[in-house]
Structure formats: structure tokens, C-alpha cells
Write a structure and sequence with these properties.
The chain is α+β, with helices and mostly antiparallel strands. Helices cover 33% and strands 34% of the residues. The chain has five helices and six strands, in the order αααβαββαβββ. It has a six-stranded mixed β-sheet with strand order 1-2-3-6-5-4, sandwiched between helices. β2 and β3 form a beta hairpin. The protein is globular, with a radius of gyration of 17 Å.
């Protein structure tokens, strides 16, 4: 994978899990040549990682933007956010970077939902996040020396009344690589 930046690569990596319909939703506002190149690069990826059931994609750390976006989502979404980047240098001068990432698979919860329906939705979103984790366990980008999933991970229930009353699951983990930042 040729890199522009680690954020570009993270976006590209998680876009692999989107169906073409979800991908269209993620690129609904075209904005220039780089935007178009990113879309073409994602469309050229093999479809063996696409996970049925993901209907939308959110990649942001801006709470207001995320809230506005989720207010318009009706189905299951994959939400990727990133935070801390830490680095260390070994005794042989090799720099290792860790990028803290959280992915959430969730969906807006209707007001009139019963407990059985809630459990079924939670079960489905847990299945999707587990499928993503299974793929990530095996992914090592040899060209960049990136481990897309560096254990330990934490998966916890996600309930966010302020974010379109969404519920699902969030997995927190580190992406680790050699000199990726």
C-alpha cells in the first residue's frame, strides 16, 4: 500500500470493509482530485473484505461533524476515530509508532424498540465488529511494517443517546508500525 500519511492509510484500510453502497455514502460530497484518487484507489481494492450489513462509514474525530452525520444515518455504520500517537526508539535506533484507534459498529435505535430487538441488533453489530477483528489479526502490511491490530483490544458496548441514539459495539486498539508517523 503506497502511503500519503498514516491517516490516509487508516481510512483506506477500513474502507475495504465497505460494500459499494456504503462507499457511495462515504463519498457523497466530491471535493477535488485527491478525493477522486482516494475513491478510485478504494474501488480498485479486492472485494474479499467487504462485510454485508455495513451501510455507512464515518471517519472523524470532530464530534459536531459526527453528530450531524449520524443524524442522517438510518442503518448500521462503521465509525472510525483515532486519538493518541506514541513513539519509542529502540537501542538500535528503530522508531516504533502506535496509533490509538477506536472503531464502532452501531446503528440508530428507534424509540419503540423492545428488548428482543435490541439484543438481536447488538448481536449483529458484535458479529460485524468480530469479523473486522478477525481480518485485522491476520493483516501485516509488509511494505510499511504495519500491524493493523496490536493486542490487547477492548470491545465494549456503545450506547450514545447524543449520537442519533445509537447503540452497538466499540473496539479500541493500537495500530503499530515502524516509522509510520
Amino acid at each position: 500500500m503506497m502511503t500519503m500519511s498514516i491517516l490516509y492509510d487508516i481510512f483506506l484500510y477500513f474502507a475495504r470493509f465497505l460494500t459499494s453502497e456504503a462507499l457511495e455514502a462515504a463519498f457523497r460530497l466530491p471535493s477535488g482530485e485527491k478525493h477522486q484518487q482516494l475513491l478510485e484507489k478504494i474501488q480498485a481494492l479486492p472485494s474479499d473484505r467487504q462485510i454485508a450489513g455495513i451501510e455507512d462509514f464515518v471517519f472523524s474525530i470532530n464530534r459536531e461533524s459526527v453528530q450531524k452525520r449520524l443524524d442522517n444515518i438510518k442503518g448500521t455504520f462503521l465509525f472510525v476515530e483515532y486519538s493518541t500517537i506514541s513513539s519509542k526508539v529502540s537501542s538500535v535506533d528503530v522508531k516504533t509508532d502506535n496509533v490509538r484507534v477506536a472503531i464502532t459498529v452501531a446503528r440508530p435505535r428507534p424509540q419503540d424498540q423492545d428488548d428482543a430487538t435490541e439484543m438481536l441488533w447488538q448481536d449483529e453489530t458484535l458479529r460485524i465488529i468480530s469479523d473486522i477483528r478477525r481480518h485485522m489479526r491476520d493483516d501485516l502490511d509488509c511494505g510499511m511494517s504495519v500491524w493493523w491490530l496490536n493486542f490487547p483490544t477492548t470491545i465494549q458496548a456503545f450506547i450514545a443517546p447524543a449520537l442519533a441514539n445509537s447503540m452497538g459495539w466499540t473496539m479500541e486498539f493500537d495500530i503499530q508500525g515502524t516509522d509510520i508517523v
